[in-house]
Each structure stands twice: as C-alpha cells, then as structure tokens.
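Translate sequence into structure tokens.
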Amino acid sequence: MDALNTDKKRKAKTINDVLVVLLPSVADFKILKEQNWYRIPVKTAPKTVKEKQIEYIAFYHTSKFDKQLKFTISYYAKVTSIEVVARKELFPDESSLHPKAKKMYYKISISKLIPASPPIYSKRPRRILFIPTTTEKFFNTIKLERPEINYLFNDSPLENILFQKLLEENIPCERQYMTTVERSKYVLDFAIFCREGKIDIECDGDTYHNEVHQIHYDKARNNELTVHDWSVLRFPTHKITKEIDEVIYQIKKTINNYGGYLVAEDAPPIYTQMGKQGRLFS
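Result follows.
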C-alpha cells in the first residue's frame, strides 16, 4: 500500500453528507453549468458517493481558472441523483474507439449551481482529492466573514480538538495538507510553514498507532519528512484530550525555533508568545 493510502486508512470513520470535489478545468465547469452533472471514476470514488450519502456537492477551482475563482469553493449544488455509467454515455459525441470509452464513472446529477457567498478560499494553493464534510460544517463555514477551507475537514475528533485550540491561539495551519516527498505522497494532519522550516503535526489515535506495522510506518515516514525539512510532532490521544496546553506549548516552541511562522509566502515571520514557560523570540 502506498504512503498516501496508508495515511488515509488511519482516519476515523465518519458519515458526511457534503462532498467537496476538484473542478479541474473550464470545460468541466461548462458541463456543470449547461448539463448539470459531475463525474467521478468508480475506482477512486469516496465511500460517501458509493453509498449515495451525499446531499450536496461543492466545487474547488484549480489554478486553471481566473484569479477570482482559482483556489476557492465558489459554487455548490443539491445532488439529485447518483448513477454508474460508462464514459461513452457521458460523452456520446466521442469516438467509440476512445481509450476510456468503457471506463465506468459515477454520474452525479445536480440542481442549479448555487454561488457560495462569500467563497470558501484556500490560504495556500492545494490540489485536493475529496473533502467529505457535514452540512452543518459546510453552511456554518459559508456564514463566516472570511470562510476558508480548513474549517471543512471532518476526519477526526482529535484533529477537531487541536484545530479549535490552534484557532484560539491564532496559530495559522493547513489541515490535511498533501505533500510529495521523493516518490511518496503524504497527507499531513496539520502543516505549519515557518521562515526556517516546516512543521508536520500528527494526531495519533492510541489504538491504530500502537499496532506494530503502524509504528514501523510512522518511523519511516518521520525520517523521510525530516530529511526534506519537515519537523514532525506527534501527539497521542491523552495528550490532546487531557494535556492540550502542553501540546500548544510544544508547537509554539517549535515554531519559534524555526524562526516564526509565515502567514503568507511573502509575509514577515511572526513569533508566538510562550507564556510563563518560555519567552518571546525576536
């Protein structure tokens, strides 16, 4: 199993009725607007699609779009039906000799597109796969003055606890951030970007991460990320649920050791207040 799939396997099981998907091209956007459907290959479809649980689908625009749309979720829609069809049924004008003519897709039919106002933006460019979430989280995010993509993730109760605390401490982070190291792709629970390095924060559920094969995998993963300028911090369940202040202290200490965090690629570093156990680095 590759590194990306192993990372995903350990996430907590949740039932989500909203799915954020990638809108890769202007041509796909045109299909949405004119024909009211979106496609996902059967082999790569998330569980919520296979079990027909999604009530809403939202669309993340890639760098292929103009400045106003790219790296935002600017539209969503109510799902009206989900069916499995061959590509030749989706694109009847294509040649029957097309190499993907018999490939099977989930055809997700939608009602009219609804503008997300304001759009949900990504602070850093990212190429997502899927973000399953709940209607509560999705619509609560849209109501925010500055809605951003990190509020949508709903993979793990532990991650939700830590994310809420990071928000309270005004520590900017990216949730479920995908990075490529050599030939491996990893999804980091939290990524923090600093002037002199990068921090990967992992929330380790006690049951899964105590398994022998996972211990070996985590060590190998840590080593590979460390070689490529990532500092890896791992916190087990009891640390996050019972000692969250100590967790935040360790995170702040690491941020300051790496020269302060960056709120944007061209922004000056910002140092974190360490409180009684430390000092403000400058």
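Note: The CA atoms of residues 166 and 172 lie 7 Å apart.
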